[in-house]
Amino acid sequence: VVKRAVASQKDQPEAVERAEKFRQKYRHKLQTLRHQPFAYGSLTVRSLLDTREHCLNEFNFPDPYSKIKQKENDMALKYYLKVVKSVEELSWEQRQFTLVKGLLAGNVFDWGAKAVSDVLESDPDFGFEQAKQQLQERPWLVDAYNQWIERMKGPPHKCALFFVDNSGIDIILGVFPFIRELLIRGTEVVLASNSSPALNDVTNSELQILTERIAAMDPVIQAALKEDRLALVQNGSSSPCLDLRYNTFSPIGLFVVFSRLDKVLATVVRERGTDLVIIEGMGRAIHTNYYAMLSCESLKLAVIKNSWLAERLGGKIFSVVFKYEVPPKS
User: Fold this and answer.
1) Which of 313, 318, 287, 268 is nearest to 119 (CA)?
2) Model-level pTM?
3) What are the pLDDT digits (tens) for 63-121?
4) At what angle do helices 204-215 and 219-226 cross, to 10 degrees?
5) Gap between the Cα atoms of 301 and 283, Å rounded
6) How many angstroms separate the CA atoms of 207 and 192, rounded?
């Protein structure tokens, strides 16, 4: 993270000094927690990640991965139409699995995971097809794909709320082809992205630009935007994790992070009658919300890119979690 922070501000001579101050402050907090786990309140993965983002902002590094995101977005956009056209040539059953596999492969591209960042640093040619080859073969670690495909044979959902994750290949070659299929089925889609930067997660302002560029190439996306069947809303967060509580707060360190869904998002979800929630990525779908029971159908999916987490869940690195849940009937 320090390396990326400095690289994002090469034109500022004092960036190295500020990055070192960030390193020292965050390490100090970690050492304190090593000896006093509850020094700053509840100790969770989410609190560690949020504390890191707070320290980065304190030393004026609001978006250390900005240049990487821009580069990866430009690259992925070149392959968008190729991916869409190859999917369109498949039978219905093959298309559904290819879209899900693409969604999972896209989620591999996470600069917050050391196992992935090491690969991306050492192999600039590592791309979408290579990521597919890294995925665990079915049956996955958590595998509810058969239940999902049976549901997809039924009537379309009214509205899907999709909490997106990373920039680049993830959002462009993974998420957009997937939601494109939902739109064709007649489902409205709300894409919820971070309000502010965190790692290489796509932000709402970035997603607005990307969607316009994709719409210029793809009549399906263009029509969905024009007819308001595709909406882009910020989620109110600047964290790799996701707090689904509304209007609450929790202490993190010596400061307070407000943990709430954006009010506009909450209104959109209610007004559109959302009946499917999709949560993508380790931070949002596993570190937080893995056991959360929603009042509508939900998909929680991620590729495990952390050996500690993989071991805890009984899998290996690049194991797949594909969790489809239906709320119990009252």
Assistant:
1) 318
2) 0.91
3) 999 989 999 999 999 999 999 999 999 999 999 999 999 999 999 988 767 777 777 77
4) 120
5) 11
6) 9
